[in-house]
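Exercise: predict the fold of this chain.
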Amino acid sequence: MNITPNSGYAVSTISIDGNQYINNGTSQPPENSTWLTVVLTDINGPHTIIVTFDTSSDGSGVADKYKLTVNATAGPGGKVSPETQKVVSGQDASVDITPDVGMAVDTITANDIEYVNDGKE
Protein backbone atom coordinates (compact mmCIF):
# COMPACT_ATOMS: atom_id res chain seq x y z
CA MET A 1 0.00 0.00 0.00
CA ASN A 2 1.46 3.34 -1.04
CA ILE A 3 0.92 6.38 1.18
CA THR A 4 0.99 9.87 -0.32
CA PRO A 5 0.67 12.85 2.05
CA ASN A 6 -0.78 16.02 0.58
CA SER A 7 1.60 18.93 0.06
CA GLY A 8 2.57 20.43 3.41
CA TYR A 9 1.80 17.23 5.32
CA ALA A 10 3.68 14.15 6.53
CA VAL A 11 2.67 10.74 7.84
CA SER A 12 2.16 11.10 11.58
CA THR A 13 1.16 7.55 12.52
CA ILE A 14 0.53 4.18 10.93
CA SER A 15 -1.62 1.69 12.82
CA ILE A 16 -1.81 -1.93 11.71
CA ASP A 17 -4.34 -4.07 13.54
CA GLY A 18 -4.16 -1.76 16.56
CA ASN A 19 -0.33 -1.56 16.70
CA GLN A 20 0.63 2.09 16.32
CA TYR A 21 3.91 3.33 14.82
CA ILE A 22 4.75 7.02 15.36
CA ASN A 23 6.79 8.82 12.71
CA ASN A 24 8.72 11.15 15.03
CA GLY A 25 11.97 11.15 13.05
CA THR A 26 13.72 8.60 15.25
CA SER A 27 11.32 5.65 15.38
CA GLN A 28 11.08 2.81 12.90
CA PRO A 29 8.13 2.20 10.55
CA PRO A 30 6.29 -1.14 10.58
CA GLU A 31 8.32 -4.23 9.65
CA ASN A 32 9.12 -4.53 5.90
CA SER A 33 7.70 -1.02 5.38
CA THR A 34 8.64 2.64 5.08
CA TRP A 35 6.67 5.69 6.16
CA LEU A 36 5.33 5.89 2.60
CA THR A 37 4.80 2.19 1.80
CA VAL A 38 3.19 -0.48 3.98
CA VAL A 39 3.96 -4.10 3.10
CA LEU A 40 2.05 -6.94 4.74
CA THR A 41 3.40 -10.46 4.18
CA ASP A 42 1.87 -13.90 4.63
CA ILE A 43 -1.72 -12.60 4.72
CA ASN A 44 -4.10 -15.14 6.30
CA GLY A 45 -6.98 -12.92 7.35
CA PRO A 46 -8.35 -9.38 7.37
CA HIS A 47 -6.18 -6.45 8.48
CA THR A 48 -6.96 -2.86 9.41
CA ILE A 49 -4.52 -0.13 8.43
CA ILE A 50 -5.04 3.46 9.63
CA VAL A 51 -2.74 6.30 8.56
CA THR A 52 -2.86 9.78 10.08
CA PHE A 53 -1.23 12.94 8.73
CA ASP A 54 -0.10 16.22 10.29
CA THR A 55 1.42 19.39 8.93
CA SER A 56 5.11 19.49 8.03
CA SER A 57 6.78 22.79 7.21
CA ASP A 58 9.82 21.26 5.48
CA GLY A 59 10.78 18.26 3.37
CA SER A 60 11.88 16.08 6.29
CA GLY A 61 8.84 13.79 6.08
CA VAL A 62 8.24 14.28 9.82
CA ALA A 63 5.22 16.12 11.22
CA ASP A 64 6.05 19.43 12.91
CA LYS A 65 4.40 18.33 16.16
CA TYR A 66 7.26 15.84 16.70
CA LYS A 67 10.04 18.35 15.99
CA LEU A 68 11.96 20.52 18.41
CA THR A 69 11.82 24.31 18.09
CA VAL A 70 15.12 26.18 17.80
CA ASN A 71 14.95 29.93 18.44
CA ALA A 72 17.73 32.37 17.60
CA THR A 73 17.94 36.05 18.51
CA ALA A 74 20.45 38.75 17.69
CA GLY A 75 21.44 41.66 19.85
CA PRO A 76 22.05 45.15 18.47
CA GLY A 77 24.44 45.24 15.53
CA GLY A 78 23.40 42.22 13.50
CA LYS A 79 20.85 39.68 12.35
CA VAL A 80 20.25 35.93 12.58
CA SER A 81 18.34 33.78 10.12
CA PRO A 82 16.14 31.92 10.59
CA GLU A 83 14.92 33.21 13.92
CA THR A 84 12.76 30.10 14.45
CA GLN A 85 13.01 26.63 12.95
CA LYS A 86 11.65 23.15 13.57
CA VAL A 87 14.26 20.36 13.76
CA VAL A 88 13.90 16.59 13.98
CA SER A 89 15.45 15.24 17.19
CA GLY A 90 19.09 14.30 16.62
CA GLN A 91 19.43 16.47 13.51
CA ASP A 92 21.45 19.68 13.18
CA ALA A 93 20.11 23.23 13.13
CA SER A 94 21.95 25.94 11.21
CA VAL A 95 21.68 29.64 11.91
CA ASP A 96 23.25 32.32 9.71
CA ILE A 97 24.80 35.17 11.72
CA THR A 98 25.28 38.45 9.87
CA PRO A 99 26.90 41.39 11.66
CA ASP A 100 25.96 44.87 10.48
CA VAL A 101 28.60 46.85 8.55
CA GLY A 102 31.41 47.84 10.89
CA MET A 103 30.32 45.32 13.54
CA ALA A 104 31.69 41.90 14.53
CA VAL A 105 30.29 38.92 16.39
CA ASP A 106 31.16 39.33 20.06
CA THR A 107 29.61 36.29 21.73
CA ILE A 108 27.34 33.40 20.84
CA THR A 109 25.32 31.69 23.54
CA ALA A 110 23.89 28.24 22.85
CA ASN A 111 22.17 26.15 25.52
CA ASP A 112 23.57 28.41 28.26
CA ILE A 113 27.16 27.99 27.00
CA GLU A 114 28.85 31.22 25.97
CA TYR A 115 31.37 31.30 23.12
CA VAL A 116 33.45 34.48 23.06
CA ASN A 117 35.01 35.78 19.84
CA ASP A 118 38.58 36.21 21.04
CA GLY A 119 39.95 36.62 17.51
CA LYS A 120 41.76 33.25 17.59
CA GLU A 121 39.31 31.33 15.38
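Check your answer against the key: The CA atoms of residues 56 and 64 lie 5 Å apart.
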